Each structure stands twice: as C-alpha cells, then as structure tokens.
Automatic annotation (TrEMBL):
The chain crosses the membrane at residues 510-531, 595-614, 620-639, 655-676, 682-701. Its main location: membrane. This is TMM8A factor. One of its GO terms (cellular component) is plasma membrane. It comes from Rostratula benghalensis. Belongs to the TMEM8 family. Residues 458-497 form the EGF-like domain.
Amino acid sequence: SLYISEYFSQSAQKLSFYSWYGNAKLFHFHVPEDTVLLRWLLQASRGKGPECTNMEITVHFRYGAPPVINPLGTRFPANATVRPSYSINITLTSAVQNTTFVNVTTPAAGDWFIAAHLPEAAGRIEVKGFSTPCPYMFQADMFVLRLADMPVLEPGVARPQTIISPAKPLHVKVFVPKHAAGMRFELRNCLTSEQKACAVRVVLGSITLPQSFQRIVTCVGRLNCSLALDSPPWEKWLQIMVESLGTANASVSMEMLATFRACRPGSASTFLNFNSLNQSQTGPRPGSTGAAGSPTLSTGGASRNTSNQRSFCLQNQPVVREDLDVVSVRYRLLNGPSLPVNSLSPTLLLLNLNTGMDSGGSLVVSLLLNKTSVSLANATVVACVSAASPVLSLNATHNCSTAFFQGYPLSVSMSSAEATLIVLYPQTDDWFLSLQLLCLKGQGECNAAEAKVTVFAYLTPCFNDCGPYGQCSLLRRHGYLYAGCSCKAGWGGWSCTDDTKAQSVGAQNLATLLLTLSNLMFLPAIAVAVYRYHLVEASVYTYTMFFSTFYHACDQPGVAVMCIMDYDTLQYCDFLGSVVSIWVTILCMSRVKKILKYVLFVLGTLLIAMSLQLDRRGVWNMMGPCLFALVTMIAAWVYHGVKRRHCYPSSWKRWVFYLLPGITLAFIAMSVYAFMETNENYYYTHSIWHVLVASSVAFLLPPRDKHKKPWAWSQKLTCRYQICQNDREELYAVT
C-alpha cells in the first residue's frame, strides 16, 4: 500500500483566562478521506517575564463541531443535550515551552475542532498599561497519514485479502448507500500461511471524539465470523480495519464480504407542490391539503392505507431548508407543520446540516401533539433525533441509537403533549427526525390509529437569544463562524440561564443608583468653579457629570438600564469628559496667562479627543495629559516662586486645607481605579472613584483673581444701571 503523509498548520493564538466561550481559542482542521493515522502536535509557550507563573492549559477535542465545554461548572438550559468533551491538560512549569502529541488511529474524515483556554478568570479589571499580563501562546499542527489506494469492497462480492504481518494492519472501505437499513460484514476462510486458524481483530467504523462508537469483533480459531450493523451511516465511506493477532512471521489470508439490507421508503406525496412553499408555518389550518392536493389523513384514512404502509419501512416527509442569516436556518414541512404518525413505519424528516457552516449554532426541535387526533389514552409518539442515519426500529428498541451514533430521544403523549430538544453545536452531517406511534398494551391496538404531531425545527446562533441577561456574540476563526453567549448581572451558563450567582433586581437598582448618583458630587466642584469665576472649568465639569451619569445608566447589565443615545457615543463622551476635566483642572492650578491657558485648553482637548479615538482604554490617554499638565504647573509655580522670592503658593493655609487634601483624594482615587476594581465590586469601587475625583477637584481649584470681586447680584444690578445712566448722559452731552 502507498501511504501519503500530509501536514496542516495554523497560526498560534494568545490564550485567555476563561469566563465565557469567547475566551476559548478555536482551531479548525479538515481530515481527508482514507486517513489511517492522525497526530496532533500541540505547542504551548509562555513569556519570560517575572509576571509569568506556572499555568495549566486545557485543550478540548471534538469531531464535526466545536467542543461543548463547561469549565465553570454552570448549568445548561433545560432540554439541552450535553455530552462531556474529550480534553487533556498541558502544564507549563519552569520550562518556557511544552510540546505534546495526541495520536488518533482511523479518525473519521471531515471537520475536527480544538479549543484551548486558561483557567477561570480572576475577575479583576486591569487598566491597560498599568500591568503587563504574561502572554501564553498555543499552536496546534496536524499530521495525517492516509492510504492512496485503499481497497474498496463491492456489496455482495467476496474479495480475497492478505495481511502481511501484524505490524501492518489491513484497511479496506465500503460505501454505504442511501436507505440502507442494515449491514452485515463477514470474514470467510481466514487462514494463516501455516494453514492454521487465524486470530484477527476486525474494527468497523472510525474514531470520533468525544465519543467513539467503533464496532470491534475478535475472530480466534474460527474460519468464519461476522458482524451486523443496524442503521449504518448513509452515503458515506465506512472504513474497516483488520489486524492480525498471531505471530510476527505468519501472514493471514481471508475473504471479505459486505452485504446490505435495503429499506423501501414511502413518501407523503408523489411530487412537490411548490405552491406550498408560500404557505404559513404558524400552524395547521382547517381544510388544508397536502403537497399532492389530497386531504389530510384521518384515523379512518389510516386504516384504509394500512396495507399500503406495511410495504414501506419508513414514510418520508418533504422538508425545505430556508436560510435566514448566518448560522440561522428554518425547516419548513411542505405538507404543513402538522404531520401524521402511525405505528406501522416511522415518519422521517431530513434536517440538512452538512454545509460546513451550521455547526456553530444550536439545533432546536419541538414537538406538539394534537390530543384530538389520538383516540387511545395510552398511546405515545416516540421520536429520535440522530445524525448520519435515522433510527428505523423505534417500535422494537427505545435506546435511540444507530450503528455509530447515539441519538437524542423525545416523546409526547396525552399527559405530556409538548417536548423540546436542544442540540448544542450539532456536528456537520445530515440529521434525521424519526417519529412513530407506540402503544403500551401492544402494537395491535395502534395499527388503525394515527396521531397528528406539529414539528418545529430550526437552527439558531444562540438559544432564546441568550435570554434577558445575556448577549449573543458571533465569533470567527478564519472563515468559520460560531456563536456564544456572554452573560451579565451575575447570570451564567451556556445560554445565561444559571441564576446561582445572579443579582437580584434590588441589587441591580442599587448598582445603577450608586454609579449614576455618585456623579452628583461634581455639583460642589461646579459651584466652587462658578464662585471663583472659573466658568470654562465649570462647563467641563457639567459636561462630565452629565455624560458620566447617563453612560453608567446605559452601561448596566441588568434590567435597570436607560440609554438616551447610542452606547458608544455615551462611552466616548464619558471618557473624553473625564480626561479633559483632569487636564483643565491642573492647567487652572498652574496660574498661567489667560490667553495661554485657553489655547492649551483647546489644543489639549483636540489631542485628547484624537487619542481616545485611537485607543479608548489606553492608560496614556489619561497619564499623558496629566503629566504634561503637571510639568506645566510645576514650571509655572517655580517661575512665580523665583519672581516673588518665596514659595508659591505662599499661604500655608492653602497647602494644609486645600492642596494636600485634594492631592491625597486624587491619589486614593487613582489607586482605587487602577488596582482595586473587580467585576464583583465594580459598582462600589467605581462609585468611590467618582466621589473622590469630584471632591479633589473642589479642593484643588485655585481661588479667584484678587482684582475680581465676589458674585453679588445687588452690586451687579447697580453697576449695570450706572453704566446705562452714563451712556445716556454721554449721548446727551454729544447731542
């Protein structure tokens, strides 16, 4: 046999601490057909700085779709199917780099996904620029070894094969046709080169993670052995591996035979009625007709068609796939949302999810039983959702499994008429919904009965749009799109349905009030600025107070939210007002000439607006203007001190009662903002930041100029009257 090795690589990604699915870094690979060996090369590395510590990286694997993970141990939504992912841990200790290999023999061909992440996030809010996080990098490479000329078994034709040595197992494949109800594989005339009975192991199927359903049979001392499969995967190549268990020098010869049991499908209509594509899918309508124009079957009609249905192993229902948006699909039944279900053969619906871009959402299947359509009180409609091939024996077994897939069961009855199933990240394949009517006392009483079941099936990016306490985010890895829920207000879980740590409505209202009303502490600063004739500064403080109040009212994660304009606009205005307030306050303290002060006001505001547009959360957007203003203020104070030949400001009361308290409040505010804020205490610490900053401004503002008199409305009115009188006298004198 000719083996071909191939190598696939993707660029490294920087890992993040886990708080939601968007923190997991996804790698998407495609394994070619006839692959007999798959090897993952996982490389993890970290930085060399002192901030880098020992770290454990978790890596998840899955075939067909992104892995469904739950590192935080939260609850999934009700009716959601969850199967644990296959994962390994990679530990980075003193070594800067770690290399790990993962081997998979006879892997399934198609899409494979790897997701990697760091442990749970600490929840601390880090200001960009104050701390340098340690970079943890992860890269996944894929090596595959595939057969270029894998032998093909023809159904019903025995083919002789030889195993040269136990070190070289034999690989063959057979194509499973559509509507194959069963398969039988036989190994005949198995003898060694020494004409002795052989000892071989036969493996049918490929490995899929996290669960593998390979069928294995060991033939020891028997000339013939066989293995039967029910519901093999339709329209796919089935790989068969045979390896010798004997001595190293003996070859093994045998004959292989694969046969299939066909399933004759029946159809609800002989041709598609394209006019039904425009019919409403809200529910069945009285007097509606099927796709072929025939009236809907009733219980009596079912009894008249019993003999016709016995000749079919299933009843196909035509389904139309309607693409709505990215990872958003609706399935429409041409005969209406309500379909007939009987006990003689299962009713089958095809849900096409094989485009390669459908595995990043959630498949939702809902069943609703029409209670008036079933006359038997003990009748139950059993359903099964499976991939690759349908379940065709619902009346015999209730485990809802096919040859290589464990399906998801559903059931509706007179006591429970509704059922819903949520498949998170369904694997890329053809999915099938099988329904059949069962009777607890025996199938005989169900032969003449028929149930009406309304089926709703759709693919959505996020189930229930993540609820009221979550946001559905569309994520991308190269050209592959998938969705995840980002929860807020303490809610958690895959669809933000876990309320274990959720905030109450009262706590949400309290947080909103704290973050908004704490901005009212700018009122004393505004009053002080107006009283001391710093009108431009007072205008800036008013602007900051207004936009900070309404930004935090719009930024709340819960129900206590009010947005007067676009969120991004409010955030930008809040950040701009905060930095400009610091800028004008320090420049006002420097006591430079008015013309120079106002030029610096305008020029600095323009530069701050530009820098915030480039990087809104960068620490130098605040520190840069502060440092420049401080240098300007110190230079001005030194100039005034040298010119006056004494310390400036000269009054010790100014230092003790105003400057030192103001500077202390400002330093405490910066410490709280940079080092103490977390996701849990943000509402309180950020409110303290508002109070401290606004209070420090009131202390730091300089007094008014000596030649200016304080605000006195009576004097202002008198002066204004005197000016008016002088103008009149002057005009009278000129006349």
